[in-house]
Design a protein that fits this description.
Layout (H helix, E strand, L loop, with lengths): L1 H18 L5 H4 L1 E9 L18 E7 L10 E7 L5 E7 L12 E5 L28 E7 L4 H17 L7 E5 L31 H10 L9 E7 L2 E2 L8 E4 L4 E4 H8 L5 E8 L8 H7 L2 E8 L17 H11 L22 H10 L8 E4 L2 H4 L11 H17 L2 H31 L3
Parallel strand pairs: 6-7, 6-8, 8-12, 12-13
Antiparallel strand pairs: 1-2, 1-5, 2-3, 3-4, 9-10, 10-11, 13-14
């Protein structure tokens, strides 16, 4: 009997919530009913919002901007659990769950939807000339806190790009996400949607503040004066409504890691060569100035998906955040599905993708709702490239490309690039020795 009464109450609540929407909102707002009763005094949603049930209540979560990452404008409609009458509407920034979406939270009006299994074609990317082993070391921290599948997808795309295209040492890449596994708020996804193969990214720890600060601490004894560090932050971000309050959401409870705290932690690193930062989360632009001001690197660049007051947005298929995806694509030389870029990201024509060029590419094809922004410590900051240190002679590259192309066509990319990484040190050494010998012979006195 009680269950039947609850169902009648739920139906009354659903009907009222729908009727509160304007005609325009009915096309853009997703409504979700939490099919449970919140007790008086119970916290609703992440603790950081400090939203409490003032009486036994039924919740309708109104998501007014479903394609935006959090934090973004949303509302909690609270109905009296006895009468079903609306008694309170609370503006919110985060969804009404802490980790994974509650099983009792069910959508009942969803004009904005994402495709779980979009039918998209993947093509093997063109093979680019491999880079030589650099003279200095390169490190990367890839971070997502309250991770959704799309955020994990971007971590994977960037990880593959660093390993395959730029020959980063996997031991120098620290990846932190959600609960320290391939799990996400949306559950587990077996294959990466780019080429439908298993994820290759190695998750080293949870997406907590402590883990992120630990990753930076881990570099204190490693970074040298010429080294390069890439930091990529993903997932969601918060903003308290006034300048200087942008923050990065952390696992497990959406708590914010504020931009000034992040920058102060970064300042603890020893002086090193180059810092390139790419941030995808909402309100990420609030990190630009603090990072530039506190960076111990000689040259620094920061690319962010959104200005401090604004949100970053999700692709129509729900698999990507366009700015992060396109920034990584510029670095990779191909999109996530192996296809050609919209245009050549190497606008300087120097054979390498500089930080500002990657930003310019992502910005040139951005989703209309995104507000990307870029900061650099100097012209050198904008010139930072993940492969900038490499010097190759065009004719040598052509020869190597021709030889390796045959192998590339016959092997999966992961296997091919693994073999190339093992080959590079020997190839570099023998090439240098042979060129040295040939040049010496040519200039030897008769």
């Amino acid at each position: 009997m009680a269950d039947k009464r609850n169902q009648q109450l739920f139906e009354r609540v659903r009907t009222h919530a729908f009727r509160t929407l304007s005609f325009e909102q009915r096309q853009t707002t997703n409504l979700h009913l939490d099919e449970r009763i919140y007790k008086k005094g119970e916290t609703i949603g992440p603790p950081r919002q400090k939203i409490l049930a003032q009486r036994p209540s039924i919740l309708v979560f109104a998501d007014d901007d479903p394609r935006a990452n959090f934090s973004h404008a949303c509302r909690y409609l609270l109905y009296d659990a006895s009468s079903g009458n609306l008694h309170r509407e609370v503006p919110a920034q985060f969804p009404p769950f802490v980790k994974a979406k509650s099983k009792t939270l069910r959508s009942f009006h969803e004009p904005v939807q994402f495709f779980d299994k979009a039918n998209l074609f993947w093509v093997k990317p063109y093979f680019y000339c491999p880079y030589l082993i650099p003279a200095y070391k390169r490190y990367a921290i890839l971070y997502a806190g309250m991770t959704n599948k799309r955020h994990l997808n971007e971590l994977e795309f960037l990880y593959r790009t660093l390993i395959d295209i730029y020959s980063f040492d996997a031991k120098n890449i620290q990846v932190l996400s959600y609960d320290g596994t391939l799990n996400t708020q949306d559950g587990v996804q077996v294959n990466w949607p780019g080429d439908n193969t298993a994820y290759r990214v190695k998750i080293d720890g949870e997406g907590t503040r402590a883990a992120l600060e630990g990753a930076m601490d881990n570099l204190k004894s490693k970074l040298k004066s010429d080294d390069l560090l890439l930091i990529h932050t993903n997932n969601h971000g918060g903003y308290d409504g006034t300048p200087g309050t942008a923050n990065l959401c952390t696992y497990p409870s959406w708590d914010g890691y504020y931009a000034n705290d992040f920058a102060n932690k970064l300042a603890e690193l020893p002086k090193f060569g180059k810092l390139i930062v790419m941030m995808e989360q909402c309100h990420a632009g609030g990190f630009n100035t603090p990072v530039i001001n506190k960076s111990p690197a000689t040259a620094t660049s920061v690319a962010s998906a959104a200005t401090e007051p604004n949100n970053s947005y999700v692709s129509a298929d729900g698999n990507w955040d366009p700015f992060a995806r396109d920034w990584i694509a510029a670095q990779a030389g191909h999109d996530a599905f192996g296809g050609a870029l919209a245009h050549n990201a190497d606008t300087s024509g120097n054979g390498r993708i500089e930080a500002e060029e990657a930003y310019d590419y992502a910005n040139s094809i951005k989703l209309a709702a995104d507000t990307p922004n870029f900061s650099e410590s100097s012209e050198a900051g904008g010139d930072i490239a993940l492969g900038q240190q490499y010097k190759v002679w065009w004719w040598w590259c052509i020869i190597i490309h021709e030889i390796l192309q045959k192998q590339y066509l016959n092997l999966p990319p992961e296997e091919f690039y693994a073999k190339v990484r093992r080959l590079q040190p020997k190839l570099s050494k023998e090439f240098r020795e042979q060129v040295t010998s040939v040049v010496a012979s040519a200039f030897r006195k008769s």
